[in-house]
Write the structure tokens for this entry.
Amino acid sequence: MKKRSSIVALFACVLGVVALVLAGCGGGGSTESSSTSSTNESAATSTKGSYTLVKDGTLTCVSELGFAPFEYLEAGSTEPIGYDIDVANEIAKRLGLSCSFLPSQDFDSLVPTIKEGGKADIAIAGITISDDRAKEIDFSDPYFESNLALIVKSDSKETAETLNAKDKKVACQTGTTGDAWIEENLPDAEKVPLTDISAGLAGVSTGSYDAYVVDLPVAKKNLSDSFTDLTILEEIATGEQYGIAVSKNNPELTKAINGALAEMQSDGTLQKIWDKWMVEADVPEE
Ligand code: GLN
């Protein structure tokens, strides 16, 4: 059917993009597992094939753990799970490292944490590669392509046009691409930036907000698991690409991660992780 084939086409396109991007860096991908635990100034001047780690032998990761299906905690658990968690674990394994996640942080603190250094080696959190962010940190090659979704209550009569009005409240996660999209495309609406996605979606359910903007796979997962009274009004085709954030002082780590990602793309591991976590859901067609 049309919907099915468009989903398949999208997936093929996503894989194509990843394959294309990764193809250029597969060859000599360093999978050097040795590292130094030095955190002094020499850490900033890594030599080829070596990188620095906050904790020797461990890839220390930081994320915002409220972004299902990419990274989240199940009720009562402190063990992060999701697409990005599997990707990080697989990268660590291929670099001969163990993988550990720090406690969840607000999304807009992740890039500053990596820039500042000393706490985590990478941030992996469905972070869209952007020029502004790339001024602060380095990104790995893209490992996922995404769009945004405009979410409303199922019985809502709103459209993207009617939402652009002074008396409409449109919520998002602070500092995200959804936040930027509202600013650009619904300039007349009142934007409500919040730290927590579930709280924002709950607010749409109860009528506190008229709409919510978030990454499409996250919308699909949340709407099918918990917010069955909400619907995707529109898919916003931003075609954004997720990258892993690494300090600009640690270019060899970025190279090693890119080598691992290229392997994971060509041996089908990324596809397996995709199949494990991505949720299908109805999205209105144009
Ligand atoms: N991909 C979006 C961004 O980078 C949202 C990420 C998130 O909320 N974890 O802004």
About this structure: The first strand starts at residue 35 and ends at 36. The CA atoms of residues 9 and 105 lie 35 Å apart. The chain is about 35% helix and 20% strand.
